[in-house]
Design a protein that fits this description.
Shape: globular
CATH topology of the largest domain: Naphthalene 1,2-dioxygenase Alpha Subunit, Chain A, domain 1
Largest sheet: 7 strands, antiparallel
Number of strands: 20
CATH superfamily of the largest domain: Naphthalene 1,2-dioxygenase Alpha Subunit, Chain A, domain 1
CATH architecture of the largest domain: Alpha-Beta Complex
Number of helices: 12
Distance between the termini: 38 Å
Length: 414
Amino acid sequence: MHQDTQVEILKELMRQVNEGKNIDAGVQYKMPTSAYVCPDVAAKEWELFFQNHPQLIGLSGDLAEPGSFMTIDDFGTPLLATRDRDGVFHAFLNACRHRGVRIAQEERGRKNVFTCPFHSWSYSNAGDLVAIPDEDHFGPIDKSCNGLIELPAVERDGLLWVHPKPDGHLDIDELLGQPLADELASFNLGNLVHGGVKTITMDLNWKLANDTFGETYHFAKLHKNTLGKIIPGNNLHLEEFGRHHRFVTASPVIGQFKGVPESEWDIHVGSAFILYYLFPNITLIAGKDNSILVKMYPDPNNSGRSTSQIFAYYSQEMIDAEAAARADGTLKEVVSADTAYDPEYRSIPTLAATMEIFTSTIEQEDYLMGELQQKSAQNGLLEYVTFGRNEPPLHHFHKTFREVLGMSPLEEVG
């Protein structure tokens, strides 16, 4: 991120903190609760957002070396993502060309050849059909045109993108826009190593899961015993990039930049997190040495249920520091929410700490509120909820998805 952008963001956050005022969008909106429960809306979302829209499936570190692979079954297309012998990223339909059986069953691993468990047809990690047992009995097959069905796939600045349709359009510059694409590139996400993943499936619409990441108004209330201990909340800086946005909130030490030359201001110190919402369903929290990727998916058969996957990534230097601290006995293990939020335990943001924070804060607090919201929406008596002037990321998200679906705009309050 450019230094002038960092300074602009930090100045605004310092102003809000000093004045005790949150961001002010100048408008409130009514959000119809039917959007969380309507089967027709859910069906349109599944078709437009997940079956016919590029999907961010992970970071380059998910396929760290040649031979790496992972399987994904989140958006209606069984996917096999690979890195071939030459290090090239590919995405395929995870289905044998013989009878359609999935050729890769594990979630991730390393393989140069994938063998179908049904009849042992074999494919390289570049998708080529390389062997058919008893081919003289089966009959002639042109292997050159019967490899795995390949999907559009692009690896760009550490991000892995796939389109679920073989003829789908995938243009990253068009998808993100140049300012946002350049900014994401500045975080060097391609240098991060996959640390682990947590999956949360609960009874809330996927948009309610996304709403969790749309304001800091609730930090000192809902999270007073967890996240609120380390992040003051009730302040944010927002910048929109078409259908996407960036959302930043202040760290407790942002005041230390007073009197310091602006050339030395560091947003990784002055902000509690830098969060990117990438349309339609991605939250990317980009850090200096570690990042979090949250992917939120609807249950295609139940508009009131969703699954969130939280992926943690770390720099090799941070992994080595944790290993060294563990070896010499100086690493303090995180075993509960209390220790996860204790600064003494957070000098090295280990996988255990990251997952405990997401368990205690997101799963047990935010998503629990989402389940209660879902029940109210399903009841039908609560026709709409209100998004305040201090919740503009929610304005942007809901305006955007309604526009894409051809729905009526949000109605202003008043």
